[in-house]
Design goal:
Length: about 450
């Protein structure tokens, strides 16, 4: 059996890590990243050397030995990535298999270039050959993949935890990159130095791995399109809800104007001072509804607060607000209207189920250090059920409702923030944290 040398083990490990690094640019890191990275590298090479020694001690053929070696090293890199980066399992698998496909593309292209140019270790010398075809070509191919595929698609798709297509693509890629490569790299399976072994087989492997990468990013784009379709459905639902809310606001204003007209006519005909005073008080109360005005420093937020405060007054809801609109002024006005409109509509819809004296909604928007904090709470005597961190609608047609809370989470995630919803101690609370980089979202 051909010996699995330590030099080959180290060389392959560095090549694979270089290619995986292209898929890790911009990924969230865990705390104490530098210490974690140093520890992960030390643990990786210790385990890699032990795995290499174990395979050299075991009887078996070349195919089994090489397949187990490369598979084991690949799995070890996944462990190191998980230790250093905050990724869900599907993201970890995406990064690892993408890096492996990139590594095999570089390996295959290197063989083609060497054959076409007639270059070898003897003609170039070991140091030059090692630099060019053991490391530089991997850096160049990784950079090419990054600028052509990874960077243009960053943030344009989501991986789903149960997305089995990634696992299937992983299997295809590993079979092509690990098992088949053994057949065309050693004399035991194919004569070396021929056009078939140095060009045809590597070219075929390159095309297969490239197809795998394209399919992986296609999955991301397909998921994004599905997400956008869901958002469009939500926006249609929101538009209908906003239309009903605006119509209700207009109805309130019309009723108040109608009442004022008759009250003013009654005042003109009154001689009784006590009755006149009583009517004046009623007119003042009716007019006070138009005194609700906000100057938070954000025009979109002011508009939402005025509309919802009017509804709160009509529904006998006590509404209090302390809002620094400038803290969220970086958001698109349409996003502010959708986010705050949905949040306040949900709160008002929930709170009107409570006794009139217990109907309270309060809103706080402020800067908390470098973060932006939004806290909205309302009384809630009967807490809702939760699923996946979101309250489940208690309306009969669940398929046509529940878009509001999902759109809230979606909008917050667009600005790299977090939304937490909870019910406790007779209150329903929504907490939103937006990071400082959200201003560049």
């Amino acid at each position: 059996m051909l010996d699995n040398s330590l030099a080959g083990c180290v060389r392959f490990s560095i090549q694979l890590m270089l290619c995986e690094a292209a898929f890790l640019v911009g990924r969230p890191r865990r705390e104490r990243f530098v210490l974690r990275l140093a520890g992960a590298l030390a643990a990786y090479f210790a385990c890699a050397f032990l795995w290499n020694a174990l395979l050299n001690a075991l009887p078996g053929g070349l195919l089994l030995s090489r397949t187990l070696l490369w598979t084991g090293l690949f799995v070890l890199t996944l462990g190191g990535i998980w230790c250093c980066f905050d990724l869900i399992p599907m993201e970890l698998l995406f990064v690892g298999t993408g890096g492996y496909a990139t590594e095999h593309i570089a390996f295959a292209l290197g063989r083609i270039v060497q054959y076409a140019g007639g270059w070898s270790e003897d003609s170039l010398g070991v140091p030059v050959h090692t630099i060019l075809f053991r490391f530089l070509i991997y850096v160049l191919v990784s950079g090419l993949i990054y600028f052509l595929l990874i960077r243009p698609n960053r943030g344009k798709g989501d991986l789903k935890p149960g997305d089995g297509r990634i696992a299937l693509l992983t299997l295809v890629m590993l079979m092509a990159a690990i098992v088949l490569s053994v057949f065309y790299t050693y004399d035991a399976f194919m004569e070396q130095g021929t056009f078939g072994s140095e060009v045809v087989c590597p070219l075929y492997a390159t095309l297969c791995c490239t197809l795998v990468l394209l399919m992986k990013f296609y999955v991301l784009r397909e998921n994004r399109m599905e997400r956008e379709r869901e958002v469009m459905d939500q926006l249609l639902q929101m538009a209908n809800a906003q239309r009903r809310t605006s119509q209700e606001t207009i109805n309130i204003i019309n009723m108040k104007c109608h009442d004022l007209k008759h009250q003013i006519q009654a005042l003109a005909a009154m001689d009784d001072t006590a009755a006149r005073s009583r009517y004046v008080a009623e007119v003042q109360q009716a007019v006070s509804i138009y005194d609700t005005d906000y100057h938070t420093g954000c025009e979109a937020l002011d508009y939402v607060l005025r509309e919802k405060a009017l509804l709160a007054g009509e529904r006998r809801v006590t509404f209090s607000c302390m809002a620094d609109g400038g803290a969220i002024a970086f958001m698109d006005p349409a996003d502010i209207y959708a986010l705050m409109g949905n949040a306040l509509d949900n709160a008002l819809e929930r709170v009107v189920r409570e006794p009139e004296e217990e109907r309270v909604v309060s809103l706080l928007i402020k800067r908390a250090g470098d973060m932006v904090l939004l806290h909205l709470e309302n009384t809630c005597g009967r807490p809702p059920e939760f699923q996946d961190g979101l309250p489940v609608t208690d309306k009969e047609d669940k398929a046509a409702h529940g878009f509001g809370v999902r759109s809230i989470r979606y909008l917050v995630e667009r600005y790299q923030g977090e939304a937490l919803m909870r019910a406790a101690e007779g209150k329903f609370c929504l907490d939103i944290l937006l990071p400082p980089q959200a201003a560049q979202a």
